[in-house]
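STRUCTURE:
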């Protein structure tokens, strides 16, 4: 530790004593971490070359996921999950709106925190990415063949879904633990001062191994603490799940001080196979709960929203030997299990050591009943009986730990702004590297799995200060890439991120890049308004609703002239991109629409709802630069006053009109002068 960081440490220690956290930002003096020598070549990916890893960084308060290549740090895609995205119409189109439905109605935003890759046999398998909504508790599943969100389940009896959506090594469950305890069964109108009596925590286990069928297998009702993070056991600890909790003080006001009084809080260790057995043997209760389950039908690509009405809840008192509390200093944040599954590492954000629990000792202590007390039927194990070791003087504000698969652990230090490398088993600090600044999560590709790819570490920093060109009061969010392949960590790269990434996951690109869907097969589409050829386009009126079935193909829309729409009508443009070629997208936008554009992937149908307010002519056009004649890809809709006798016409082909008439769809022939020649 340099004299300068030591003085910062002392300064911040007194800040902790005062009950607050300060950011330790080295914003003056010479810039440490300047790259030299061959560092640039280690992150350089030449034009035309691909990155070695896909990295998925949560967008934090933008509710989305950023996909980056490593080692370059290049942004590859911005993937909407819980938030509407005008860039591609996610959450604006009729097909995708149902994805954002919740028990609170349409919630077009969330705070996305922890991406989690699906696992098989304890390692990332490249099928899906899960991510949590921290605000209105939800878990989303993203298909890594399309890079699209195709399922979201809401978590009932929860007030914030922070400890989520960490997976079991077999991929059977992802979990969600409530950040804020709330009145449960159901949440209701009670005085906040009845916190201790009425507020409960809960740990949800969500079955997640079948697309479209995510389901809350069971919830475990817990004392009313704040549950923060979690990780599954593996190897010897397979079948267990570990969740940090703080606020065992059960404070409900001024948590900054009142939730930081106790010397130790708890990690909840859950034997979830025991819990499963208790559920199977009828020891759980079915309780009323309202929560949404939304998913995209794979052949129509239309999302469906359903509301569930009950959930299975388990009280630890009814299922002994299932939940235990591990005392852990002090307001622990992260809980991470090493690749062997033997060590459970806590990040006591206000602690001066990193405590590591031993799974073997934990088992022995349970057998020997080394319990200090019991809380609501949950035995509290004796700290000295379960602790494997403590990393001494690691730095200040330990939060999260990841592993390199070579016997080393890496812990982020929020207050002293550094990443500390230490050795599992001996607990000695081996190396430390400053990061800029105030690091939250760190990520090693596969670093929470049983076989980490221990080459790089990404630090996700909360404060940027002087690392980029300034951009007004709000600066770029920041990540840093660190080489961990040698004995000493080496800073390789700063790269700015969009949103505030909380956590990230990464895996070798080879696991997913060859499985990409190149286009959606038109022939297999079951969208109710798909057109598979221009001949199938048409226009029809049902009362005040006008349906336009439209095709988009380089470089025109069919139809591209529409008349007979009236003020007071709702127009639904069902636009199908009938291209069957990779990366040939079209867009659709119309003058004055109170909505976002459509972006149409090849073979996809999307519906644009439009309610024109004045009688006039409205141009529409393609927004995605698709061809040399992209600028010609446009059309007009004529809107007449309500009650007008302008016939409903569209310049669809005569053949299409005939077919539509045979199918019983009302289609006016394009007869009026100026309505356009039939093609
Ligand atoms: Cu189609 Cu631009």
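SEQUENCE:
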């Amino acid at each position: 530790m340099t004299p300068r960081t030591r003085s910062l440490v002392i300064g911040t220690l007194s800040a902790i004593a005062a009950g607050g956290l300060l950011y330790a930002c080295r914003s003056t003096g010479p810039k440490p971490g300047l790259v030299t020598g061959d560092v640039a070549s280690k992150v350089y990916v030449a034009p035309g070359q691909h990155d070695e890893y896909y990295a998925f960084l949560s967008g934090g308060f933008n509710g989305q996921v950023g996909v980056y290549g490593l080692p370059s740090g290049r942004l590859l895609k911005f993937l909407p999950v819980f938030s509407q995205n005008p860039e591609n119409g996610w959450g604006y189109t009729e097909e995708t709106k149902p994805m954002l439905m919740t028990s609170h109605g349409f919630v077009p935003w969330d705070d996305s925190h922890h991406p989690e890759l699906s696992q098989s046999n304890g390692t990332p398998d490249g099928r899906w990415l899960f991510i949590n909504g921290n605000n209105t508790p939800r878990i989303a599943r993203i298909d890594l063949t399309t890079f699209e969100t195709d399922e979201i389940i809401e978590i009932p009896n929860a007030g914030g879904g922070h400890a989520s959506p960490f997976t079991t090594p077999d991929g059977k469950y992802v979990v969600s633990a409530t950040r804020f305890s709330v009145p449960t069964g159901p949440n209701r109108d009670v005085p906040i001062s009845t916190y201790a009596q009425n507020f409960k925590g809960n740990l949800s286990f969500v079955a997640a191994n079948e697309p479209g069928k995510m389901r809350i297998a069971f919830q475990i009702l817990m004392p009313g603490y704040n549950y923060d993070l979690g990780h599954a056991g593996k190897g010897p600890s397979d079948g267990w799940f570990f969740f940090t909790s703080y606020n065992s003080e059960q404070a409900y006001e001024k948590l900054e001080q009142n939730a930081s009084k106790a010397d130790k809080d708890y990690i909840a260790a859950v034997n979830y196979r025991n819990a499963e057995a208790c559920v199977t043997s009828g020891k759980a209760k079915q309780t009323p709960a309202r929560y949404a389950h939304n998913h995209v039908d794979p052949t129509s690509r239309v999302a469906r929203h359903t509301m569930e009405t009950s959930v299975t809840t388990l009280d630890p008192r009814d299922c002994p030997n299932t939940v235990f509390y591990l005392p852990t200093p002090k307001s622990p944040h992260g809980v991470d299990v090493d690749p062997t599954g033997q060590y459970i590492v806590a990040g006591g954000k206000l602690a001066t050591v990193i405590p590591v629990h031993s799974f073997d000792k934990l088992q022995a202590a349970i057998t020997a009943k080394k319990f200090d007390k019991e809380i609501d039927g949950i035995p509290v194990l004796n700290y000295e009986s379960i602790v494997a070791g403590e990393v001494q003087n690691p730095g200040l504000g330990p939060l999260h730990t990841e592993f390199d698969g070579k016997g080393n652990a890496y812990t982020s230090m929020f207050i002293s702004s550094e990443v500390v490398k230490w050795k599992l088993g001996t607990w000695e600090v081996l190396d430390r590297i400053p990061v800029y600044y105030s690091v939250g999560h760190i990520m090693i590709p596969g670093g929470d799995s049983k076989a980490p790819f221990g080459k790089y570490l990404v630090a996700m920093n909360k404060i940027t200060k002087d690392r980029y060109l300034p951009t007004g009061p709000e600066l770029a969010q920041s990540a840093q890439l660190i080489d961990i392949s040698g004995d000493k960590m080496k800073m390789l790269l700063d790269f700015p991120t969009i949103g505030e990434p909380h956590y990230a996951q990464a895996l070798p690109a080879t696991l997913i890049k060859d499985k990409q869907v190149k286009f959606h097969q038109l022939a297999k589409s079951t969208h109710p308004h798909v057109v598979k050829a221009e001949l199938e386009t048409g226009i029809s009126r049902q009362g005040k609703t006008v349906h336009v079935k439209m095709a988009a193909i380089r470089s025109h829309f069919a139809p591209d002239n529409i008349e007979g729409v009236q003020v007071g009508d709702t127009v639904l443009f069902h636009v199908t991109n009938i291209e069957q070629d990779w990366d040939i997208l079209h867009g659709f936008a119309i003058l004055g629409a109170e909505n976002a554009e459509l972006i149409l992937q090849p073979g996809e149908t999307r519906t644009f709802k439009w309610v024109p307010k004045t009688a006039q002519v409205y141009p529409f056009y393609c927004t995605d630069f698709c061809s040399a004649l992209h600028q010609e890809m446009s059309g007009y809709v004529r809107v007449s006053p309500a009650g007008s006798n302008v016939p409903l016409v569209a310049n669809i082909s005569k053949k299409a009109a005939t077919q539509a008439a045979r199918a019983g769809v009302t289609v006016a022939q394009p007869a009026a002068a100026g309505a356009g020649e039939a093609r």
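REMARK: The chain has eight helices and 45 strands.
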